[in-house]
Design brief:
Bound molecules: guanosine-5'-diphosphate, manganese (II) ion
Largest sheet: 6 strands, antiparallel
Helix content: 25-40%
Strand content: 15-25%
CATH topology of the largest domain: Rossmann fold
CATH class of the largest domain: Alpha Beta
CATH superfamily of the largest domain: Succinyl-CoA synthetase domains
Structural class: alpha+beta
Shape: elongated
Number of domains: 3
Number of strands: 18
């Protein structure tokens, strides 16, 4: 789950990470009030849950009230990567002397938490990562949740020649790590992490993403969710006990179990097709789930075929079959269904489906081949 900069900034404050004075505003009057408190110059920043606001004209430093009002209104009318701007952060502008990059995230391949740091922070960081990967430092936590200061010290020295900044950056990093682990983040990022006019380090931007699977542990974070930026199908699926991720292809997939769902997508790709989604109906045998799954998948107009792949263990194949038959009565399914069922109550399921005129498969390869053919 992504949150806005102003929300991430509040978390930074809670954890003692320095940020500039400021607040979020919906109207230019509110913006003026904030600026009168912080003093000019201030920076006005679009609050949208997509990156690259700076490059899109959504971040602007202004020197006085007239400029503030005109820039506020200009940014409010921007469309940034398809999103309108509802709120803006107004903060005391930092006199930036140098921009760094500092983040904590997860390296899925190494299975470890990694600190990423660079002395070349700012809006071009992605470009730097491509053209000068040697300027991006990666420091692996090696399974521990606190900073091994002796191991980090040479990195801090590489980033900052000033010993005072080595110390203060290390202390800020420790706070960022604490936030990352306590709030179950998948990313906690400061870009740019800057040296200000007084020579101190301060976060000029704040980006935090939480791990959706940990949201149950953090009831306090649920209120931060901004529905406008969430895929409504994925949210609805979650409410209905389905794990659903929309993809680019045209083979709709309904599968029981996350592992088999991944395997099914691999098989579709392997046999020349493109999956339209990941969908795991879970381990239980609730016919209602099949109906809901079909409804959600059919909203995608790219779908050419629906592949149902069930390996019956705890899930009973006949319950799935009943779900399919209920769905056929209740909704119009304008694409072919390719059904593979094997395992618990397979015979009963196949009898039910065959008597309704549907073909079933036992072999996954055969079913996937059939589905890919239907998708062309
Ligand atoms: P992003 O582009 O969405 O990551 O937005 P940022 O908040 O990182 O802002 C983009 C760029 O605007 C930064 O890299 C800075 O160069 C500049 N910027 C942001 N805040 C300030 C500020 O307080 N003062 C100054 N002078 N520049 C700022
Ligand atoms: Mn940024």
């Amino acid at each position: 789950m992504k949150i806005h900069e102003y929300q991430a900034r509040n978390l930074f404050l809670e954890y003692g990470i320095p940020v500039a004075d400021g607040d979020v505003a919906v109207t230019s009057d509110e913006a003026l009030k904030i600026a009168r408190k912080t003093g000019f110059p201030v920076v006005v920043k679009a609050q949208v849950l997509v990156g690259g606001r700076g490059k899109a004209g959504g971040v602007k430093v202004v020197a006085n009230e007239a400029e503030l009002v005109s820039e506020f209104n200009r940014i409010k009318n921007l469309n940034i990567k398809g999103y309108t701007v509802e709120r803006l952060l107004v903060a005391r502008a930092i006199d930036i002397k140098k921009e760094y990059y500092l983040a904590v995230t997860i390296d899925n391949i190494k299975g470890d938490v990694v600190i990423i740091a660079s002395a070349d922070g700012g809006v071009e960081i992605e470009e730097t990562a491509k053209t000068h990967p040697e300027r991006i430092i990666k420091f692996y936590m090696q399974g521990i949740k606190t900073l091994d200061e002796a191991r980090w010290a040479p990195v801090a020295a590489q980033l900052f020649s000033d010993v005072r900044l080595q110390k203060s950056s290390t202390s800020i990093l420790q706070k960022l790590l604490k936030l990352f682990f306590e709030k179950d983040c998948s990313l906690a990022e400061i870009n740019p992490f800057v040296i200000n006019g007084e020579g101190n380090l301060i976060a000029a931007d704040a980006k935090v993403i939480f791990d959706d699977n940990a949201m149950d542990r953090h009831p306090e974070l649920a209120a931060l969710r901004d529905m406008k930026y969430e895929d409504s199908d994925e949210l609805e699926a979650k409410e209905k006990g389905l794990s659903f991720v929309k993809l680019e292809g045209n083979v709709g997939c309904i599968v029981n179990g996350a592992g088999l769902a991944m395997g099914t997508m691999d098989a579709v790709n392997l046999l020349g097709g493109r999956p339209a989604n990941f969908l795991d109906v879970g381990g239980s045998s609730n016919p209602e789930k099949v109906l809901n799954a079909l409804k959600i998948i059919l909203r995608n107009k790219d779908i050419k075929v629906i592949l149902i792949n069930i390996f019956g263990g705890i899930t009973r194949c006949d319950d799935i079959a009943n779900g399919i038959l209920t769905a056929l009565k209740q909704i119009n399914i304008p694409v072919p269904l390719v059904i593979r069922l094997t395992g618990t109550n397979e015979k009963e399921a196949k009898a039910l489906l065959t008597s309704a005129g549907l073909t079933t498969f036992t072999s996954m390869r055969q079913a996937v081949t059939e589905a890919v053919k239907a998708s062309k």
